[in-house]
Amino acid sequence: MPVVCAANPKGGAGKSTTILAIASTLAQQGGSVTIIDADPNKPITDWRTGKSTLPIQVISDATEGSIRDLINTAASEAQFVFVDLEGTASRLASRAIIRADLTLIPLGGSALDAKQAARAVGLVRESEEDIGRKLNFTLAFNRTSPPPFTRRIEREIADQMRSNDLPVLSTHLYRREAYNAMFMERLSLFELDPRQVNGLEAAVDNAVQLTGEVLELLRGAAAERAA
């Protein structure tokens, strides 16, 4: 079953938010989902201690030595496996990237985020050299402004990434109160109270659209392997 990891050596790049938004959308749609929380801060492990009833299994004891076996076991049991990686370039991160069917590189719309995302791309390239084959990855913008309020720097950074032949998701995970509320309330987007969270419906639609684009990439990768 497909394995998706989120990698960026910059802490606070939106890895956990991106992973949880997609994973919870798939679980809400009936998918079997496991998240391996390899972030030392354990944000998704903490989220799982809440009252969410979504059937998402969270594994929080990943180490450099165990990450490969954890991914393989989870992939044999769940329809979708997500790995939330630590905010450093490490051997654990490299092992997860090599095993993943898709690596998401979350970044915000700032020059610093773009620089750190470039380091994550470099980590993927190094992993490709180690195993002698191409790996699927894409940049995934988050915490950007939704249209028509998109900032010029956000557009310029996205255009620059594409001009450098780097894959970029068309769907951004926009700056929404609901994404912070997921972690504050320890609930999924689908369980939050729309009376208490501004723009919740828009955030749900945004997460569903992002999930659909990620699924299309995974289907394309599967088709390439089968060809």
Automatic annotation (TrEMBL):
InterPro entries: DNA_Partitioning_ATPase (IPR050678), P-loop_NTPase (IPR027417), VirC1 (IPR009744). It comes from the Bacteria. It holds the Pfam family VirC1. This is Chromosome partitioning protein. It comes from Shinella granuli.
